[in-house]
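The data are set out underneath:

___
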Amino acid sequence: MATCPRPTLQGRRHAYSLIELLAVMAILSALAGLTVGSLSPVRANALTTGGNQLADLLTLARQNSLAHHAFTAVVIKSTGDSRYSAFCLFELTRNEDDGTFAAWKMTAPWRSLPEGVRFDPGTLTGPAANFVDMNTPPSIPSPLPGTVQFRGQTINLPADVAYQVFAPDGTLTKRDPVRLRLIHGTDDSGTGIMPTGPKNAGGNPANCYDIVILAETGQVKVERL
């Protein structure tokens, strides 16, 4: 009795239709969107972590000035490696014999903001700068040292940093409120910072972490934008 030949696998093969290809592409696009969306909280958490870290350091600087009746400088690296990311604290120490001011020493080592987070240079430089450079020093008994070690290298403080100083009573030596802003950003090809986060209609970063230091009291206030 004759039997019908079985269809071969080769006979079953067929090309994908345009509708099938479009459906696959739609699924892949949806998955990609979910993946990117899942990274947004990570970026937001990095900004919050960096802001909280900085706010704690500024509070520590004020407390240090009050506790030791000393001047405490918050120093931020503004050029070269880790620009607008690395920061530390210096204290103007006193002589044990007569209590006069002696020399500056580092009291909190260099730290860096989380990866992908930077200080907004606009709050450190320019006519409305909230921090100062060595060309416009605040009223302090002794200037900061000319050089300091940064991760095994000697850097020039007058050229490489911006800073602000808490007075012995916990207030700022600059008699204006200080605002620092953290943004999502990375080093550009020159000497500045390139914002990498979302932007508002004006082209400015839309997701920021602002820290305000009240000049009259030196207290720290967080404003999350």
Q: What stands out?
A: The mean pLDDT is 81. The domain at 46-224 is CATH 3.55.40.10 (minor pseudopilin epsh fold). DSSP finds three helices and eleven strands in the chain. The longest helix spans residues 18-68.
